[in-house]
């Protein structure tokens, strides 16, 4: 750019792009709690799906699906906001995306119990996941047991 005599590069971001960027930047911070990180991953997926839906509605186009042979090109697994898409775009594993989704959907009271642990008893990712995998009705009791 210097050779061309330019000092700035023009860029146009719509609100959806800006929000995705903000969420992505927040995910790379190290001081997020387990719950905050799970919420950010879920938010990123939601925004990505919404953006894809608004673009496809404007263009009247549909995403490609599985071929007749069952091969996946740009099929269900590659849809914007899918587990695979989130993992690729955010630089994390698909397993981490799925775990974050479970933690994000867990009972808020159970999550609060785990978050309020302090000192050496601080809850780990594994604790959150263990509680999140219980039924909603058992999550609070399990979180109390873990604490």
Features:
single chain, 147 residues, mainly alpha, elongated
Calculate the mean pLDDT score and round it: 83
Please state the structural category. mainly alpha
DSSP, total strands:
0
Q: What is the percent of helical residues?
A: 55-70%
Quaternary arrangement of the chains shown?
Answer: single chain
List unreliable stretches of 5+ residues. Answer: none
Silhouette? elongated
Supply the number of structural domains: 2
Strand content: under 5%
Radius of gyration: 20 Å
Largest sheet: none
Number of helices: 7
Q: SSE order, as H and E?
A: HHHHHHH
Query: N-to-C terminal Cα separation, in Å?
Result: 57 Å
Compose a concise summary of this entry.
The chain is mostly helical and 147 residues long.
Topology:
Layout: H1 15-27, H2 34-59, H3 83-90, H4 94-104, H5 108-115, H6 125-132, H7 136-146
Describe the structure.
- This protein is mainly alpha-helical and 147 residues long.
- The protein is 58% helix and 0% strand.
- The radius of gyration is 20 Å and the shape is elongated.
- The termini are far apart.
